[in-house]
Amino acid sequence: MKTETYPKDELSFDPNGKFKILVLADCQDNEKPNLRMIKYINFLLDAERPDLVVFLGDNVVCNSEEKFEKGARLLLNPLVLRGVPYCFCFGNHDAEYGVSKEYMLSSFSKLGKCLTYNADDSITGVGNCVLKISSSDKKETAFALWLIDSNMYYKNEESLYDIVHEDQLLWFKAENEKLKNEAGKSVHSLVFQHMIVPEVFELLKEKPNGKFKVNEKRYNLELNEKASGTLLELPCPPYVEDGELDAFCESGSVIGAVFGHDHNNSFIGNVRGIDLIQTAGMTFNSYGNGKVRGCRVIELDENDTAHYKTYTRRYIDDLPDSRCGCGGELDHGDGPREKFFCFLHRISRFKK
Questions:
Q1: Which of 40, 110, 218, 237 has the smallest number of Cβ neighbours within 10 A?
Q2: Sign of CA dihedral 202, 204, 206, 211
Q3: CA distance linking residue 52 with residue 79, whole number of Å
Q4: Radius of gyration of the chain (CA)
């Protein structure tokens, strides 16, 4: 696979030893991205001035290459105009309607400063790679970012969603060992992928009479003491454990993994020493909730790479005047159901 990518040594900590990442999950739009989302991306780039933008999958979903090209250009135009480096991983919907991941990767690679590449054509998925962040003096690799394709749908009945496959984990282990040998020490890192690991349920409170049954256990939408944040929908990982979290634990380098996929959830919880970092969706085209719709910002410090700082931003806080006039938490997407309730809301306002 030919991938024309931006030079991999582009990323480095700034002279103050800082590095900022803007994480955008589930933009999930088509050839005509929602104008509110594009406006918000422009706002976030100017407000945060990130060193890197990471798209967490379900980026541009189209049924033809022509439409994909148009949607990708419009989505990425705010980054291209500002010269902001970006990378991405694939979600379960990206290639669902006929445009291949290989074609998408090739197209993205020609738009602006795209850093995603295919590190190994022989393993499962597309876009599995590692990005190195150099120290501020550019003398060594100070941090690493892993992009992993969490794939699409499982072939057996045990699970709807696919797992990260064994060959991908073997690749991760080998590359992590190579990084360690090159640096002479463990290089701390974060993982970015679309779907969260099955162990996410260790962050939910078990309830004997809970509404949701998962692998013989029952839960309500309630986080336990290991996690904090917002849980508005049941997590949707694969229901088959794949050993990925074990690989992260054994690596001695991964401090956290960042996920999208579940648009209405935004939380952080620690499982076996690894932070599971759930990011809410950006989309207005697919389902969403104004209580969480937004992004995540991650700040790294060269002098303490074993830790990170993170916070979320919400559309309703940053751009409270929505296009339709439904302010506050009533702000919504553009699906038929949401448009109908918007119509009812506007009628009720008119009657008042």
A1: 110
A2: negative
A3: 10
A4: 20
Of 20, 23, 80, nearest in space to 51 by CA: 20
Distance CA 195, CA 56 (A): 9
Which two three-digit tokens encode residue 153?
Answer: 């749908």
**Largest Cα–Cα distance in the chain?**
70
Determine the Cα angle at 147 with ends 137 and 156, to 5°: 165
Contact 277, 258 (CB under 8 A): yes
DSSP state of 240: S
What span, in angstroms and rounded, lies between the C-alpha atoms of 331 and 318? 12
Collapsed DSSP state (helix, strand, coil) of residue 262 = coil
Answering whether pTM is above 0.90, one says yes
Closest C-alpha among 116, 86, 124, 133 to residue 244 = 124
Provide DSSP, 115-154.
----S-TTSSSS--EEEEEE-TTSSSEEEEEEE----SB-
* Contact between residue 1 and residue 121 where contact means Cβ atoms under 8 Å apart: yes
3-class state of residue 175 by DSSP: helix
Count of positions (residues) in the chain: 352
* C-alpha span between 159 and 237 (Å, rounded): 9
> CB–CB of 32/71 below 8 Å?
yes
Distances (CA, A) of 171 to 128, 165, 238, 242, 301: 9, 10, 20, 14, 27
Q: For residues 202 and 25, give the distance between their C-alpha atoms in angstroms, rounded to a whole number.
A: 23
Tens-place pLDDT, residues 110-126: 999 999 999 999 999 99
- Closest Cα partner for 162 from 238, 241, 260? 238
Asked whether the beta carbons of 303 and 143 are under 8 A apart, the reply is: no
The encoded tokens of residue 170 equal: 């073997």
Contact call for residues 304 and 257 (beta carbons, < 8 A) = no
